[in-house]
Amino acid sequence: MGNEGNMAMSLKQNIGQKLKVGLVVSLIYTAGCLVFPAAAFSATDIIVKGSTVNLRSAPGTANSIVTTVQSGQRFQVLDTQGDWYKINAGNKTGWIAGWLVDTSASANTQPQQQISTQKIKQATITGSAVNVRSGPGTSYGSVTSVSKGSKYTVTEASGQWLKIKLSDGKQGWIAGWLAAVNEVNVANPPSGGTTVVQQPQVDTKVKQATITASAVNVRSGPGTSYGSVTSVSKGAKYTVTEVSGQWLKIKLSDGKQGWIAGWLAAVTEIAVANPAPDTNPPPATNNPTTPPNSNGSTVALVNGNEVNIRLGPGTGHNVITRVSRGQRVGVLERNGDWAKVQLDGGIVGWVAGWMLIDTAEASPSPGDPPVETPDTDQTGEPDQPAEPVRLEQIEINEQDGHTYVQLKAQGPLSYDMFMLTGPERLVLDLKNVDPTDLPEKIEVGSEAVSQLRTGWLTQEPPVMRLVFDLKGTVANLDKLSDDRTQLNLDIFIPKPGSFLNGRVIAIDAGHGGSDPGATGPTGLREKDVTLDLALRLQKILTEHGAKVVMTRSNDSFVDLYERTAIAERNGVEVFLSIHINANPSRDKNGTSTYYRRDTGDLAPGVNQADNRKLASLVQSELLRTLGRRSLGVLQSNFVVLRTSPVPAALAEVAFVSNYEEEQMLRQDTVRQKVAESLAQSLNNYFAPTK
Prior knowledge:
SH3 type barrels, 41% strand, 5 domains
């Protein structure tokens, strides 16, 4: 098959399921051992918990140090004052901080046999069915799979991968982002008995929705087409019992349930204690609050690896202990940027406030949500049939430098798509499709594509990967048919050159002023990122001769309708809005670009082909630059899209609600690359067609 003319090939095939990209979890492993003396404990005994603890002349850290004592030493309490204990250490008497000792042993009045304990890392599986591989990476074969909720000892870590010990004694590797890792104590009886994992009492974890809008409708089903049964007020908190797309099912104070829009609530995970059933429960309140710790404190999550807990609010104070990412602490008070916290076991100390995530922190999605229909939502997962869908045909044609790929299936298609560089590749992962006789390699030889390679990504669940080896930096337009049974790709190398000179372009930095947009797990605000990206993009476009109209150039609030009015008054040719995505699920990640829904009332001179072309070019460049999962080129009724007088697109660069992507968006180099990719997409839009 040559480069000239049209090429066509028909093939039959099969496959399917879902490639998950999870939160990157960075782990540092430590182990400790506490040895309890065999002597009996009196009611006034304490055991030192800190490694080297100061004994002071009087209760309080401001008093002079008399001597030091070591971890594991036992002393009799002579006196107490507040959180301090008076003890006799050798020939010296002094005071020791109560948060550095263990008093729980005082209840043991009978001699105890010596027992050693060791802290180990334990992985709790959070994915529904997680592959256990022979090595740390997806290139290694799957040896078995483990189920959600099962727990395994972690024996090793390599990058984002964890080596776990299975129930049959064998070991294998799992993706760290598909498991929650906690530290537990393992008791080793001296007589050679079975090792016992001493599990701390675990509270039930539930999702809680905090209403972020003034009055939110509660509907009978997950969508605006369902009737409103009541409304809830801003700040009220409700338990989330189910999720459907962007909609949350919540339990109301009267026990009834209903659905709210997920973008009008901040969802957090909280721990709810399970006490003995109360035969006379108190009446429900209309505004439940986040359950505090037993000491009345609010709850926060540690957001760092091996975070120091100190004696006082500042780095000049001694380190008492360390806590790990994801650990819950009770916040007792705050002093500037520092928080006084209480840990499990009663230890009290100070931690840098920027290393905590408030569990009540709001992370709403943008206030003007997309309306996605089955024919345009390329990321939606249709109800998958029990059997894989047969892929009936792959047809590849070339015309005028464009490589057109058409995939036809007997049932609905679901896919992930992303770009890779070095060398340039376009990757398409087809889910639940049966590739019976699909060849491993198809020579294409077009201007943009050299060949197509195929193979299993995973066979359980079945995911078939198609890799297009490219001849350069390409743009790609993808479109799924109304019934989702046909996927069309248009792959081409944009015409080289600069085509921005003299163009008038509107750049819209999402949110601003009193509207922060979404907020990430560590506090990154959408409005700050979008403004920075817009200003960087403005500079690049101006340097290439374009006239740039900014809807906002500082941290100010601009009405949504005023944004497109500004564009119209300045006679712009295209409108590009920049946003950062968010989702109630912190696992959600990827890049998407929107253009308006075709409701038949397009502005004069604007057609859907131009809208879609602009959105597709923006999406292609963002995928190539960021290498994130493609959530597709979608249609939406965003105000700025439906009121734009010119072709318009709205880019959702990444998810600020996803920890990994939030940290990515904090990087100056990433922001500059995003701005450059957006400039390139606009240049490609104005490039003459071949």
